[in-house]
Design a protein that fits this description.
Immunoglobulin-like; alpha+beta; globular; eight-stranded mixed β-sheet; 26% strand
């Protein structure tokens, strides 16, 4: 195992920032695109980032912290080499308070499949102030052998140090892309989810309340991007991001959210303000003119190896939440089966959607086009578990002592619920089974080799996806979290919990309900190698990284993915 420390992280971040600072001392903007001098002080304390790469362009991002207000011109430059001697393209962008002093550039004129390095600068009377240097990479054209990626999700700042981000920043050779599957930040206040741990670690959320308006969401984004580990990961590779619920509010759907109360104002307004802050603070390409601002679905082709298709499963098309806890919490045990039957009838309503009609039609077209243009794998960047998952019958799999040790009323109730063999999580695709079948039909019609990447659960999964006729439609890899605790934390002492889930579900090959980390993916034309890594305690400043599982996915003669442990 390799051991990392927060000191090594600050050394890495300092090395990047230090090289930028030395440039500012000896180099003027005469070789950059010229910007108007800014009369106040500025700094780039939130780092740099890149994302949404295409074959000839990529989004570059930064944020300024000015000492006085007003509009500010920022020069930006892209180089072909790490020493910043081979300039490729340069320009000037203006930012100001209307976009919270963030700057987002769609840098064009680049070559496919190339590493590039970039930086930003502001001219002041005292000389140029220069940002850290970032590395990015454009998408390749056809003919490549493989794609190296990582996937992460669920990075709750109060729950611990972002060790997984630091580890990704230090991977050599550097990754082609980092895929973030949502819950990049959390909306809670210090008295909410993670608050107690955050207080103990001096990582409490800012502002010190649940965020509900534009100023709050901007401040929370700024807090997360102040983290050196996150800055290092953003500077190391381009990111492709999609949001889940906590970027707005827990268990969000098109017309509301579990964690939104009418006393907090209009949901549509809150949702749009969360989206505005996200588009300002994240290295994502804004939706095309005329499209809804929350229509964050898009596609990225990595040569002829994969089409990465990002889904939006929260704010544009998702039907109203149905929750077991809300439906069954006040019922006597003898009344639960009848109520559960009526709930499942509502769950199976064909009108319920996860994506909405517009995105469903778009996805079907993208799957067909990807296959028709010779891409080997159709990969979905998806937020919530797609496989059918039922809990083990805990009344049989847990000992009386283990059941007695459960203190959570929710988990106590889960023991009884687990005996009904019903889907456990209706906030996942299990709550939208007819919509899931439509997705599987689209994949079958297209002839897709479907690989689904999933976040949300804070736990690791390797699943085979099957339709209601038990036909294999694809595979799914669910990543663990950066910091948020997994389900196993709430059932201490149940060492075989992952095996219990695998035994109870024919679609689940492997499940790990504990720990935090990241997942590496290597796609080639004929196989996908998936490797799960864990970091040690995210509440401690020093940490180690270890590999915990590995799977290989190949295609059968009929083109269907087949998953095996390595």
């Amino acid at each position: 195992m390799v051991k990392f420390t927060r000191r090594s992280l600050f050394g890495l971040a300092g090395g990047v920032a230090g090289s930028a600072a030395s440039l500012s001392a000896c180099q003027s903007l005469s070789t950059e695109a010229k910007a108007q001098p800014y009369r106040g002080g500025v700094d780039f304390s939130h780092g740099v980032a890149s994302g949404d790469p295409l074959q000839t362009r990529v989004i570059l991002w930064t944020h300024l912290s000015p000492s006085i207000g007003g509009q500010i011109d920022i020069s930006w430059s892209v180089y072909a080499d790490k020493a910043l001697t081979e300039k490729v393209v340069t320009g000037v962008i203006t930012t100001g308070p209307e976009r919270d002093y963030t700057a987002k550039v769609d840098a064009t004129g680049l070559r496919p499949g190339q590493d590039y390095y970039y930086r930003f600068a502001v001219e002041t009377p005292a000389g140029p102030v220069v940002s850290p240097i970032g590395r990015t990479r454009t998408l390749p054209e056809a003919g490549i052998e493989s794609v190296r990626a990582a996937m992460v999700s669920c990075s709750n700042y109060p729950f611990g140090y972002f060790h997984a981000y630091q580890a990704l920043a230090q991977i050599e050779p550097a990754l082609d892309v980092i895929i973030h599957l949502g819950d990049y930040l959390y909306e809670y206040g210090p008295d909410g989810y993670g608050g107690e741990t955050g207080a103990a670690l001096a990582r409490a959320h800012i502002p010190p309340r649940e965020i509900t308006n534009l100023a709050d969401y901007r401040t929370r984004h700024a807090q997360y991007k102040s983290d050196p580990a996150l800055q290092a990961a953003h500077a190391a590779a381009p990111w492709i991001c999609t949001w889940d619920d906590h970027e707005s509010a827990n268990d969000a759907y098109r017309t509301g959210a579990q964690n939104h109360d009418p006393s907090e104002g209009d949901w549509t307004e809150r949702k749009q303000q969360a989206v505005q802050a996200y588009l300002e603070w994240m290295p994502v390409r804004d939706p095309k003119a005329g499209a809804p601002r929350d229509a964050l679905w898009r596609r990225f082709d990595f040569g002829d190896v994969i089409s990465l298709i990002c889904l939006e499963t929260r704010l544009t098309g998702r039907s109203e939440e149905i929750s077991w806890s809300a439906e069954l919490s006040d019922l006597a045990p003898e009344d639960m089966p009848g109520k559960a039957k009526s709930v499942m009838q509502r769950v199976q309503d064909p009108a319920r959607t996860m994506l909405g009609p517009a995105q469903e039609a778009w996805l079907a077209g993208e799957l067909k086009d990807s296959v028709a243009t010779g891409k080997s794998w159709q990969v979905l960047a998806n937020q919530v578990i797609m496989a059918t998952v039922r809990p083990p019958n805990f009344a049989q799999t847990l000992s009386p002592e283990q059941i007695e040790a459960i203190t959570s009323p929710f988990l106590k109730g889960l023991v009884g619920f687990s005996q009904m063999s019903l889907p456990m999580n209706l906030d996942a695709w299990d709550g939208f089974p007819t919509a899931r079948e439509r997705l599987y039909t689209a994949a079958r019609t297209a002839g897709a080799s479907l690989v689904t990447l999933t976040g949300d659960t804070h736990t690791g999964w390797a699943n085979t996806l099957k339709d209601k006729q038990d036909n294999v439609r694809g595979v799914e890899f669910g990543c663990t979290s950066v910091t948020s605790p997994g389900f196993g934390v709430y059932l201490p002492g149940v060492e075989d919990l992952g095996e219990q889930f695998a035994d109870a579900n024919d679609q689940v090959h492997w499940h790990d309900p504990l720990g935090n980390g990241f997942t590496l993916l290597e796609f080639s034309r004929n196989a996908v190698l998936t490797t799960y890594h864990k970091v040690s305690d995210v509440r401690a400043p020093d940490y180690t990284v270890r590999q915990v599982a590995q799977f290989i996915t190949t295609r059968t003669e009929g083109g269907k993915p087949q998953l095996e442990a390595v």
